[in-house]
Amino acid sequence: MSYSKSILKEYDLILVVFLVFTMSSSFLRLVVTMKHKPPVSFLNNVEVWSSVAILMTIIGIVGIISSLIIINSHRIELDLLKVGRKIERLARLDGLTNLFNRRCFDEKLTEEFRRAQRASRPISLIMADIDFFKLYNDTYGHQSGDDCLKEIASIFQKCSRRASDIAARYGGEEFVLLLPDTDSAGARNVANEIQNSIQAKAIAHKASCVANVVTISIGVSTIRPDSMMQPDDLVKYADQALYASKKKGKNQIQQYEV
Q1: DSSP, residue by residue, 108-166
Q2: Which of 11, 61, 97, 151 has its CA 20 to 30 A from that of 251?
Q3: Averaged over 56-72, what is the pLDDT?
């Protein structure tokens, strides 16, 4: 993008040069066609200098038109590049929460998992599910349900502080947070922060069977992947921990560590 902008600046400068060139040729034609004697003696040959001035004018006009065409094409290219990047960005985001979507999460998971594998570093995944969310929708309506999802999403986004952290909407009322280079203790701290932040929001949920506010169940998995492991293993372990959290009464954190 910056390279294209620098090219545009160069062509803007060239355009200015051709404008000055054309104005100079026009001035030359004016001087050599004066009724009175030209102010400079070597301009006395009116016919020759008129031809030179006309040629300069033609060159200037061609240069101006060419510069305008090139500048316009580069600006169109920049606009298309911006639109393309915007479309690409939107394709990677969940439309409701503005977190990364499932497809983008899967890509990032594979990328970070392979990196952890090569470096023999830990990688953690937090998987969370809003407790009794169907009852929340039935009680407060789907618009309120969407607002609730946005609130939870904002907390996940806030807790993904590093550039490598990936907060995503995994599906429905389920969220994930991928934490590269994070051990079990670090992942537990982030999970606690998420849970505490949601409790602090105190979003009313009178239909919940565990509290009068919205709560979440969390499963956390941490592995130091060896060459035989696959990215899906990290998800599988987090899902098992989440299942344990729900089975033991919801509104809690369970951890699975390999």
Answers
A1: HHHHHHHHHHHHT--EEEEEEEETTHHHHHHHH-HHHHHHHHHHHHHHHHHH--STT-E
A2: 97
A3: 69
Whether 151 is catalytic is no
Helix (H) or strand (E) run with residue 170 in it? strand 166-171
What's this model's pTM, rounded to 2 decimal places?
0.69
- What does residue 236 show for φ and ψ, rounded to 5 degrees? -60, -45
What phi, psi does 36 have (nearest 5°)? -85, 170
Of 14-28, 58-72, 236-250, least confident by mean pLDDT is 14-28
Task: Give the up-direction half-sphere exposure of residue 245: CA atoms within 13 A in the CB hemisphere.
Answer: 28
Mean pLDDT of 60-66: 68
Q: List residues bridging with 221 in a β-sheet.
A: 125, 256
Catalytic, out of 88, 173, 174, 193:
173
Reduce the secondary structure of 83-112 to three states and give it as a string: HHHHHHHHHCECCCCCCECHHHHHHHHHHH
| Sole residue written with tokens 């009852």 | 135
